């Protein structure tokens, strides 16, 4: 599907992809935004509309804002349902669009009323209090027509009752306006900000635009220096000069850090690690890199191991045991300790029928120590006893 809603194109594509995922049309969607400046005449036409900055700088929210610098970009994002996603960078909580192309001022002028209405409806439908959002990555093109209108809409929709300034990001001050792909560029920046817990500074801002009341009052705070950020929510605003507005709410991925207790036994447990590559050379290169850079495999990498699909565990009856069963597991300290504890209890009664149960209990102990918790447990016969133990 190809969409063109001017500067809102990539976010409109994101909105359509979200709708397809939610309606069950697909489990995975690839959303791509591309902008390339191949014709000088296009640049000239925008310049005649007073949209292009003569000095090539996007002075977003600045008193000297005089248009934007054109940028080029190609951005692709993979959207998946959470249940099948293998590696999650962020969650798109909600997207919503509206349009206001028919205006007295003309199709190229944005509307404060329409944008504010869109934001209120987006947060209401998502069940998110706008006051819980500490950071908005704004469309901010660095024009005297667009910036004041957008900031007025953000202040009206998101700042009533706010006690601390709302952080305003403006990626276009750094990379220019990538037009049709600008929405996905902004989303990429937000994802990196979540990952690094730091929002990069807006550039080319020295004096706040006095025509923007929110900047004068301080309730809207442009990010003029790299800012530490650990809030899990962010809003993104985008609009096209044809009248389409889009607002997106994203939530940071809550990766579960590797458990501190893992280090105690992680070296004792053999693990099968699957890797893939298009060629043998690619695979060998990746493996060599890991072997030569062991110190780089820190907790962020280990956290990805826990980011797996739903798992289930089956506990069997007494029909599946054999001599020397689980002998190779005795070198795992946690497993050996659990088996010896069970043996001390059973020896007094001279019972060996429960050996398989003891082994399964030991395996439960090892998995728990590795912080591996199944989403469901099924047991047969005395395996139900192990289920009860695992569910304690």
From TrEMBL:
Domain of life, source organism? Eukaryota
GO MF, one example: hydrolase activity
Q: Per its UniProt record, what InterPro entries does this chain match?
A: Ac_transferase_dom_sf, Acyl_transferase_dom, Acyl_Trfase/lysoPLipase, Ketoacyl_synth_C, Ketoacyl_synth_N, PKS_assoc, PKS_Beta-ketoAc_synthase_dom, PKS_NRPS_Biosynth_Enz
SMART domains found in the cross-reference section: PKS_KS (SM00825)
From the UniProt record, list the coiled-coil ranges: none
- Per the record's keyword annotation, is tRNA processing included, yes or no? no
Q: What is its EC number?
A: 2.3.1.85
- UniProt domain Ketosynthase family 3 (KS3): residue ranges: 1-252
Q: Name one GO biological process term.
A: fatty acid biosynthetic process
Catalyzed reaction equations: acetyl-CoA + n malonyl-CoA + 2n NADPH + 2n H(+) = a long-chain fatty acid + (n+1) CoA + n CO2 + 2n NADP(+)
UniProt keyword terms in alphabetical order: Fatty acid biosynthesis, Fatty acid metabolism, Hydrolase, Lipid biosynthesis, Lipid metabolism, Multifunctional enzyme, NAD, NADP, Oxidoreductase, Phosphopantetheine
Enzyme class label: transferase
Pfam families, per the entry: Acyl_transf_1, KAsynt_C_assoc, ketoacyl-synt, Ketoacyl-synt_C
Entry-linked PANTHER family:
FATTY ACID SYNTHASE
Q: What is this protein called?
A: Fatty acid synthase
């Amino acid at each position: 599907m190809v969409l063109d809603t001017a500067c809102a194109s990539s976010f409109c594509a994101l909105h359509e992809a979200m709708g397809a995922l939610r309606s069950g049309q697909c489990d995975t969607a690839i959303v791509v935004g591309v902008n390339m400046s191949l014709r000088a005449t296009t640049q000239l036409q925008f310049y005649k509309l007073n949209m292009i900055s003569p000095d090539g700088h996007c002075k977003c929210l600045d008193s000297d804002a005089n248009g934007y610098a054109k940028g080029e970009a190609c951005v692709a994002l993979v959207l998946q349902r959470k249940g099948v996603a293998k590696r999650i960078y962020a969650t798109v909580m909600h997207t919503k669009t509206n349009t206001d192309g028919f205006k007295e001022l003309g199709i190229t002028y944005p509307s404060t009323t329409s944008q504010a209405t869109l934001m209120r409806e987006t947060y209401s439908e998502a069940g998110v209090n706008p006051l819980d959002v500490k950071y908005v990555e704004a469309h901010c093109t660095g024009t005297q027509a667009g910036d004041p209108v957008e900031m007025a809409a953000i202040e009206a929709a998101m700042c009533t009752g706010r006690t601390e300034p709302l952080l305003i990001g403006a990626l276009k001050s750094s990379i220019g306006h990538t037009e049709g792909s600008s929405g996905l560029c902004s989303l990429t920046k937000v994802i990196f900000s979540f990952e690094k817990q730091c929002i990069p500074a807006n550039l080319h801002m020295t004096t706040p635009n006095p025509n923007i009341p929110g900047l004068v009052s301080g309730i809207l705070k442009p990010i003029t220096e790299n800012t530490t950020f650990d809030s899990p929510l962010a809003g993104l605003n985008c609009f096209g000069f044809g009248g389409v507005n889009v607002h997106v709410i994203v939530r940071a991925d809550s990766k579960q850090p590797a458990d501190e207790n893992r280090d105690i036994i992680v070296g004792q447990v053999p693990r099968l690690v699957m890797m893939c590559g298009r060629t043998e050379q690619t695979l060998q290169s990746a493996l060599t890199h890991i072997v030569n850079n062991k110190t780089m495999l820190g907790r962020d990498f280990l956290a990805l191991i826990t980011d797996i699909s739903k798992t289930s565990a089956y506990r069997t009856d007494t029909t599946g045991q054999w001599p020397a069963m689980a002998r190779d597991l005795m070198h795992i300290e946690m497993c050996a300790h659990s088996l010896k504890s069970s043996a001390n209890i059973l020896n007094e009664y001279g019972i060996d029928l429960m050996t398989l149960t003891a082994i399964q209990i030991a395996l439960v102990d090892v998995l728990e120590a590795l912080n591996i918790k199944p989403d469901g447990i099924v047991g047969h016969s005395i395996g139900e006893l192990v289920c009860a133990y695992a569910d304690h």
